[in-house]
Amino acid sequence: MDELKKFFLLIWKYRLVVVIVPLLTIMVTFFIVRNLPDVYWSEAQIATGIVDETQQMSFTDDAMLQDSRINQKFINMIEVMRSKSMLTLVSYKLIIHDLTAKPFKPKSPLLKELNEDAIKHAIDVFRDKYQKKESLNLRDPDQNGLYSVLRSMEYDDESIKSSLGVYRLGATDFINLDYTSESPDLSAFVVNTLSDEFTNYYTTLVKANQRSSVKFLENLLNQKSDTLQNRIANLRSYKINNRILNLNEQSSQIMTQSADYEFRIQQAEKDIISYRGAIANIDKRFDPQDRKYFESTLTDINQNILSTRAEIHSLYDKYVQNDFDESYKKSIDSLQRVITSQINSQSDKYIYNPLNTKQDLVQQKLNLQLQLDLATYGLNSLKRHLNFIGRKFDNLVPHEAVIQSFDRNIETVSKEYQDLLTQYNQIKMESEFPIKLRQTLVAMPGLAQPSKKMLLVLLSGIISGAFCLLVFFVIFYLDDRIRRPMELAAATQIPVLGYLNLVGKRTLDLKGIWKNLHGTAEMKEFKKQLRSTRFEVNKELALSGNRGSILNITSIGEGEGKTLIAACIAYTYVMVSKKVLLVDGNFDHSSVTENSNTKLFIEDYLKTGEIPGADFNAGIMVMGNRGGDKSLFELADEKIIKERLDELKTIFDVIIVETPPLESLNKAKEWILFSDKTLSVFQADQSITAAKKQHIHYLSTINGKFIGWVLNKVKPEGKVTEQIELATVVE
C-alpha cells in the first residue's frame, strides 16, 4: 500500500506531463484525421454446402464429418480466397474496368501519364494474364511497370488484402466476404468479383479432381479385378490337380470317421477282456476228465462251427472296410443264427458224462468263444482301417496350408476390390452432381460507414496517457533512491535515529526556531524533528557512561549536510543547558569554521593544549581549523591527540566533531579512532551504490561505535520544495 501511495505521489508530481502529453496527442491526431475520406462497406456471402444437410447426398459421408475436418475445410477455402493468385485476378478485373469504363476512384498520377497506346497495351496484357490465370513477371521491365500502375491505384493484391475480410459466420455453412473502400461501387465490385472467381475456380478444381479420381480408380479397379481372377484361377487349378473338392468337408469327414473307429476299438477291447474273463470262469468249473471227454466227442461239430466262424470273419472284415454297410450286417446276423443252430444241435446229443449235468455251461462257453473270436478279429480290422484313415488325413495337411494361403490372398484382394469399388461408385456419382458452392448474397453499394475520426482521436489520447503512466511506472519501478527513514533502515539494516526535512531557506536561524520566532508549519515540524533526533542521540551517548562523550558526525559523500546536522544537534544540547564543543575536523571543507568566525583552531590546541575562554557555564564553543590538505595525524601523534581530547572531555558535556566524508578514507577514520560514538548523515533522494555499500560495511564493523543514521533533506510528502546545497547557521 505504501508503494502504491508513492507511485501516486510521483504521478501527482508530474501531473502536468500526464495531462499535457495526451492533449497534444489528441490535437495532432485531430489535424491528421480531419480530412480522411468517408469509407463504404459491402458484404457478400457464399454457401459451401459442407454442413448444410439439405445439400448432402445420401451416399456420401459428409454429414458425418468431424468438427476438426469441417474447420480444416473452411480454413482451406478461406486461405484460397485470400491467396495471391485469387486476389491477382480481382486486381486485373479492377484495372481493366478503370481503363475501359468510368473508374471507381480518381486516376493516380502514374496512370494519367499513360498515352492511348500505352493504355491499349496495358489492357491487352492484363486481359491476357487474366485469361491465363498468371501473375505479372516482375523481372520483365514492361510487366514490372504495369505492376507499378496497379500499386499506384492500390489495386495490387496486398492493398486489396489489407481492406478485405473473409471469415466463417459462426458455426454455420456460410463464408462472409466484406471490403471497405472510399467508393461504394468499388467495395461491391471487389467482393462480388472475388466470389465469382473463387466459385469458378473451386468448381473447376473440384470437377477436375473428381474426373482424375474416377479415371485413377477405374484403372486401379481393373488391375485389382484381374489380380482377383488370376488368384481364383490358381486356386481352382490346384484343387483339380490334387483331386480336392472341399478340403474342409473332407477333413471333417475323416475326423468323424477317426473318432468313430477309435470308439469302436475301445468297445472291442472292452468286450475281449470281458469275454476272456467269462470263459476262464466257465473252464474252472470243469475237471480235466470232463473236458477230455467233452473235447473228444465234439470234434466233428467243432469243425462245422469253425467253418461258419471263418465265413463270419470274412464278412465282418468287409463290413468294416465298407464303413459298416447294413447289407453285410444282415449276412453276418444270418451266419450267427446258423452257428447258433449248430451249437444247439450238439446239445441234442448225449455227449456228456452221465455223472455231469453241465449242458448250460457248455452252451455258454461256446457262445462266448464265438463272440471273443469275432471281437478279436474285428479289433484288428478296426486298427488297420484307422491307420489307413490317419495316412489319408496326413496327406491332406500340406494341401490345407497351400489352400489357406490361396484363400487369404483372394480375401485380401477381394476386400481391396470392394473398397475401391465403393469409392469409385461414390466419386462417380458425385461427379455427376453439380457443385454445392454458390453465392447466396450479392454485394450492393452500401452507405457511408460511421466516421471513426473521433474514435481515433479518443484512442490517441487514451493510448498516449497510458503510455505516460507506463513510462512513469517503469521509472518508479527502476528507481531505488532512498527517500524515507524506513527505506534507509531496510536497505542498510542499520537503525535511523532521525530525519530532517528539506527547508526552503538559505539561512537557518536556530535561535529563532527555539524562541518560536518562526511560527510557520515548516519550522515547527523541523523543530520537532530536531528534538526527536537529539533524544535518540543522547540515549546512545548515555550508554557510553562518560561525561564529555565525543560524537563524530560524518557522511559517505561530500555535501550531504553534516555541517547543518552538527550545528542543529549542538544547539539542541544548548537548549538543555549543556556545554557543547563543536569541532570542525573537515580540513578540506571548513564550513563550520567559515560560518562561526571562531578564533580557536584545532591546530593550535593540539600544540599548546590551551583553550582561551573555556570557563563559560553553558553554550556552544566552536573549534575551527585553518584548512588545507592535511589529516589529524599530521598535526600530532596519537598519544598527544588522545591526551588533548581527554582534557576536553573534562571541560565540556558533549564534544561534536564534524569529520571529513568517508570518501576521503583515512581522514575520516583517524577521527573515528578517538570518538565514543559515530553518527552518519545520509542525504535523501540518492541510491546506495556498490562504493557506498563498502563504506556502510565499514561503519557496521567499528566495534559498536556507529549508532545509526540521520536522514537529511527529506522532501515532505505532497510538496515540492526547492533543494538547498547548504543552510547557513545563524546563532
Automatic annotation (TrEMBL):
Alphabetized UniProt keyword annotations: Coiled coil, Membrane, Transmembrane, Transmembrane helix
Cellular compartments per GO CC: plasma membrane
SUPFAM superfamilies on file: P-loop containing nucleoside triphosphate hydrolases (SSF52540)
Segments forming a coiled coil: 403-430
Tagged with keyword Ribosomal protein: no
InterPro entries for this protein: Bact_polysacc_biosynth/exp, P-loop_NTPase
Name under which the protein is recorded: Uncharacterized protein involved in exopolysaccharide biosynthesis
